[in-house]
């Protein structure tokens, strides 16, 4: 038989053969599958964009460079705020010693390589005249404590600044007010304070309240009117002992610069 010809199909075979589906019906399932995949991709991308925007708005940015953190000296601990009588008292030798314990001469100054400062993004500082190639830097906490102490002393000018003009005292105090304002708002302490009447109650070390008979006799309104803000709440703090140890280990040489660098 000639290979160019094929056998003729009989009439019975034609009747028994299943009917062919139209081409459009074959392609229809694939069309819906492709459409579903496209819509699924669009929705997934949209959700990803929304999630990234939410993360960007809530993610904590990288902290600014600090040599304390870089050296692994940044530590935290849980504690409670406690009132300190010595830091609420008028000038005495004991009070001055307590404040000076935080602010020993040049404890808050350390030298740092100028090239390294540029590398980590620190501002350029004045070069130390006894240590070429090193700049004079400090930690913010000591500057803030210095400012707080300066404001405290301005309340007792006769004891600390006899004969100094009032405008000179106010000039430095106003500078310190702004330093502390920015530091407080920057750190944004979110520990909880509360209103309480400590005249008729006592809080022990475990946080348990003991009520006096006079307090218990008062009406709820009288208790509220006699209350004031109390801050002995649970807080998480940086370990200042660790920071002090770092500062003392890295401070400038007192024999070279003692009292010669002012702020």
Automatic annotation (TrEMBL):
Pathway noted in the entry: Mycotoxin biosynthesis
Membrane spanning residue stretches: 31-55
The keyword Magnesium is assigned to this record: no
Annotated keywords: Membrane, Transmembrane, Transmembrane helix
Region named Disordered: 1-20
Transmembrane helix listed as a keyword: yes
An annotated GO BP: mycotoxin biosynthetic process
Pfam family, one: UstYa
Assigned protein family: Belongs to the ustYa family.
Name the record gives this protein: Tat pathway signal sequence
Organism of provenance: Ophiocordyceps sinensis
